[in-house]
Amino acid sequence: MYKSIVILTGAGISAESGIPVFRSETGLWEQEKVEEVATYEGFMRDKTKVHAFYNKMRTSLKDKKPNPAHLALAKLEKEYPQKFGGSVSLITQNIDNLHEMAGSEAPIHMHGELMSILCEHCGARYSYQEDSSVVSECAMCHHKALRPDIVWFGEMPYHMDEIQDLLVKCDLFMAVGTSGVVYPAAGFCSLARQCGATCVEFNLEKSQVASDFNYGIYGKASVTLVKAVDELLEKGTLSHQA
Ligand code: APR
Fold it and tell me: Which residue is catalytic, options 51, 70, 111, 240?
């Protein structure tokens, strides 16, 4: 039985819901220049372009639904503690809201959220569903200083203290659909493993940090993760399936 399960998700878990991943032949970073739309410098150069980019992504979420992998994690979060005690914590690099739509209570959005906005003037972050622009006013301080609530390259991810605490205490760490290219998330497995956790990755193929894990389960998350969650909920453990 695991006392503390921590799951890290990346773009791969939402791929089967029709949201493009970042790094693949048809990935988002093949179509857009990272430095233009995912850095603060890019935002300062052309705020209108960056607002428009995230507005389009936010709008595109409207017809997206969680897939069996998101639903399996929500089920694990709810049922594992009831059945076996302990805790299940979900950290996501994703800025979509599919974990919430699947029923996850409080996923930790380390890279921010499309459905949230950040005021550069007063620092407020609040739920936001509309399009934003350079003339949108902050609901708190009324300054026209809103920016997408997204952690861009070179910025510090959210909730790092809480995440570090979870990683050092967990005994099962599962990474789902993440390429292991972007730090600090790519280093989470290494920390959890040093602290004694069993670490398993779920991906279509080996990630950049595959050797940090005890083993990997390769295939579509909608199949592999659902199977793993069923096993966890049945036996309280995960058998080596490599
Ligand atoms: N099931 C499991 N894994 C999948 C699936 C699937 N159906 N489809 C794709 N994958 C895997 C890919 O093999 C790849 O390793 O998901 C991973 C997606 O990798 P990236 O596109 O690099 O996404 P991610 O790791 O989440 O990116 C990290 O980079 O651009 C930044 O801030 C952005 O949060 C993002 C961060």
Answer: 111
